Amino acid sequence: MEIRAQKARIRTIRSARFGARTPRSPDPEPRAPNHVRITERQNRASTNLDTKPTEEILRILNREDRKVAPAVGKVIPQIARAVDLITRALAEGGRLIYLGAGTSGRLGVLDAAECIPTFGTDSVVGVMAGAPEAMFRPTEVSEDDPGLAVRDLERVRLSRNDVLVGISASGRTPYVLGGLRYARRLGAKTVALTSNPEAPIKRLADVAIVPEVGPEVIAGSTRMKAGTAQKLVLNMLSTAAMVRLGRVFSNLMINVQLNNDKLRKRARDILVKTTGASPAAAARALEDSGRRLPVALLMLAKGISRREAVKLLQSGANVVAVLRELR
């Protein structure tokens, strides 16, 4: 009995020292004894938070939130590399696909959904563990299944032409790791977005984006600073790619979808600002175009018919280049 116990202690020591793997997590994070991931650490600034008055709680939250934008600013070179990958993929008919679980997955789905009305594109796709139910009610167990990510990516027909952005605050979510491994097997480009500088997710990415925001006010609640950093980075990835692809002129959304009165008024204002047309002429062109802003822009900028404008767009005409010629 004593010999067996001694051998068990040796195995335990060897596991602690050499990072022995467990069946549940094939890519564990290397860790020193007593190491706690940065996303799980307690934040000294919020010690005894439950004893604070309301305004002090809010000041602590605000002070910590102010650390997020500078942390994102430090990784702009990596974000730029990812944008270039995404821009090339989209220009060649590929897609930008976000993959995540929990808060990370919801943020990816949100950014993808917003690209449709803002930029007039469905080439940005959000894939979330346990969706659609998980969008509204937590289903944490789904994030432990790497095979589920493969099935989800097969469902959206991930191909080597796409860019997959794996989003995980800890950088070790099995669902995201499984999806990134699958993408690499297909030959797709991969991007990792995490708040953990020692994350295994980095080893599966062509570009790793790691804004280090530090421990959360509530330990492990990565919907807070880590989630805010993710939201900022996702905004940057999709927005910069769409600007590079000519879906924005100056700072105007020239591919906005005209689904309500507010957006139709915005489109009329864009026509006036970019072409110099009168409000009445802009309104007529918008209606004549079938409420398609890029078509109306070409109609007014070049003095052509709706049919000619549509034909130009189908041939790959760059609306931004046409508008720049007027300047």
What fraction, in percent, of the residue positions are helical? 40-55%
**Largest β sheet strand count, sense and barrel closure:** 5 strands, parallel
The rough form would be described as globular
Record the strand order, biggest sheet. Answer: 2-1-3-4-5
Strand content: 5-15%
Essential attributes:
alpha/beta, Rossmann fold, 327 residues, globular, 50% helix, disordered N terminus, Helicase, Ruva Protein, domain 3, 13 helices, five-stranded parallel beta sheet, 7% strand, 5 strands, 2 domains
Report on this model:
The chain is an alpha/beta fold. The protein has helices spanning 2-18, 54-65, 68-73, 76-91, 102-119, 146-155, 174-186, 225-244, 261-275, 279-288, 293-302, 306-314, 319-326, and strands at residues 96-100, 124-128, 163-167, 189-193, 207-209. α5 (102-119) links the parallel β1 and β2. α10 packs across α11 (293-302) and α11 crosses α12 (306-314). The longest helix has 20 residues, at 225-244. It is globular.
In short:
50% of the residues lie in helices and 7% in strands. With 327 residues, the chain is α/β, with parallel strands linked by helices. The N and C termini lie far apart (87 Å).
SSE arrangement:
Elements: H1 2-18, H2 54-65, H3 68-73, H4 76-91, E1 96-100, H5 102-119, E2 124-128, H6 146-155, E3 163-167, H7 174-186, E4 189-193, E5 207-209, H8 225-244, H9 261-275, H10 279-288, H11 293-302, H12 306-314, H13 319-326
Parallel strand pairs: 1-2, 1-3, 3-4, 4-5
Helix pairs in contact: 4-8, 5-8, 6-7, 9-10, 9-11, 10-11, 11-12, 11-13
